[in-house]
Amino acid sequence: MLKPILFFSAAILFVYAATPTSGGVPQDSTPAPAQTQAATSTSKNPVKPTADSQAKAKSLYQIDCAMCHGDNGNGKTELATSMALSLKDWTDAKSLASKSDQDLFNTIRKGTDKMPPEAEGRAKDEMVWNLILYLRSFAK
């Protein structure tokens, strides 16, 4: 007697679980890529550096970038060595010459290989653009 009740309950549960709910909008299982207007509408850096914006960019760099890329951008740090990273020396003007500001923006925002992305919650687009100007100043 118990087996038919369990079988019937399982069948009802299976049918109920397989029935789609009405009024729901199907969800896409893959999130849409985060594209900000600044990242898609320009290929040139849209910000003009100020002393204040560059001081903030330097602070962001010290917090999020220097541990791997070095205080001066030369890429020679203990952490980079321990992770077997071969980072470019940004004090050499040739190292970033082939990269547009948009390329750098995309790399910072999305991350690459072992480099994590700089989430928009940590740094707004304007700050990332200022960070790029700060990075380029290492070669001057």
Give a description of the structure:
The chain is mostly helical and 140 residues long. The chain has a domain at 52-140: Cytochrome Bc1 Complex, Chain D, domain 2 (Orthogonal Bundle). Helices cover 51% and strands 0% of the residues. It has helices at residues 2-18, 37-41, 51-64, 66-69, 78-82, 94-97, 101-110, 125-137. The termini are far apart. The model is unreliable at 14-19 and 21-41 (pLDDT under 50).
What does the average pLDDT come to?
Answer: 80
- Run of helices and strands: HHHHHHHH
> Separation of termini?
86 Å
Gross morphology is globular
What proportion of the residues form beta strands (DSSP E)? Answer: under 5%
CATH architecture designation of the domain at 52-140: Orthogonal Bundle
Q: How many β strands by DSSP?
A: 0
> What's the gyration radius in Å?
25 Å
Level of helix content? 40-55%
CATH fold name of the domain at 52-140, please? Cytochrome Bc1 Complex, Chain D, domain 2
Q: CATH superfamily of the domain at 52-140, called what?
A: Cytochrome c-like domain
Total helices: the number is 8
The unreliable regions are 14-19, 21-41
CATH class of the domain at 52-140: Mainly Alpha
Which sheet architecture does the biggest sheet show?
none
Determine the structural class based on helices, strands and strand pairing: mainly alpha
